Amino acid sequence: MKKIEAIIKPFKLDDVREALQEIGITGMTSTEVKGFGRQKGHTELYRGAEYVIDFLPKIKIDIVVAEDDVDRCIEAITQAARTGKIGDGKIFVLPVERIVRIRTGEEDMDAI
């Protein structure tokens, strides 16, 4: 099992969710986060004063899938989230050792 963490632009969340549903992924968690990479933030003007916004709003998506589904998920997320501009985000893939569904006690793939 693998955990896929994707950091995307907020307005792309619905597109990514729909793309994942189309390939049969039924569960995900999204979190509003802030951060920066090469994009580094930007300056804005407020009441005549210029200020720097270092941390930009992003969405982090967490999905746990079987190893066989990882490449399809990455492809779906990449296609749905890509704008071609800086700040499109990143995808991280991590190993998952164990999953337990709290309500039933089911484990691993049965718990997904």
Written account of the structure:
With 112 residues, the chain is an alpha+beta fold. It is built from two helices and six strands, in the order E-H-E-E-E-E-H-E. The protein has a four-stranded antiparallel β-sheet with strand order 2-5-1-6, covered by helices on one side. A hairpin with a 2-residue loop joins strand 3 (42-46) and strand 4 (49-53).
Q: Fraction of residues in helices?
A: 10-25%
Oligomer: single chain
Strand neighbour order, sheet with most strands: 2-5-1-6
Distance between the termini: 10 Å
Strand content: 35-45%
SSE layout and pairing:
Blueprint: E1 2-8, H1 13-22, E2 29-35, E3 42-46, E4 49-53, E5 56-65, H2 70-81, E6 89-95
Antiparallel strand pairs: 1-5, 1-6, 2-5, 3-4
What descriptors fit this protein?
112 residues; two-stranded antiparallel ribbon; alpha+beta; single chain; four-stranded antiparallel β-sheet
Question: In a few lines, what is going on in this structure?
Answer:
The protein is of the alpha+beta class and 112 residues long. It has two helices and six strands.
